[in-house]
Amino acid sequence: MGDFPAEWEAWIRKKREDPPTIEEILRNENYREEMKQKVKDVSEKDKLLQAKEYEEGLVAEPSHTQVKGHASAPYYGKKEPSQDPTSTANTFQPGAWMPPGSDSSQKK
């Protein structure tokens, strides 16, 4: 997690009775490194197998889509905002603002 081994973290947080030994820490570190290497090897083999299957036509290649903006943001066809924001700090009057394109005759 941080700068010290997870075994010490567990002992400090009272999730284990005894403090870890140097041998245990080294053994677990070697195990984690072996697992990282195995995952890397399996990923490479899988990529090679997928490439072979694509070449043989056994599997369709994934389509490449272009994502614009954030995935959860709605898209209504406009590419850019209609106006640049402007400051009204010196001229602001409460209740005087009207949306662009609205008539002043529709005031209540």
TrEMBL record:
The record's GO CC annotations read: mitochondrion
**Composition bias type Polar residues, residue spans:** 83-93
Q: Where is this region: Disordered?
A: 56-108
Q: Which GO biological-process labels does this protein carry?
A: mitochondrial respiratory chain complex I assembly
What InterPro entries does this protein's entry cite?
Answer: ComplexI_NDUFA12
Superkingdom of source: Eukaryota
What name goes with this protein?
NADH:ubiquinone oxidoreductase complex assembly factor 2
Source species of the chain: Zosterops lateralis melanops
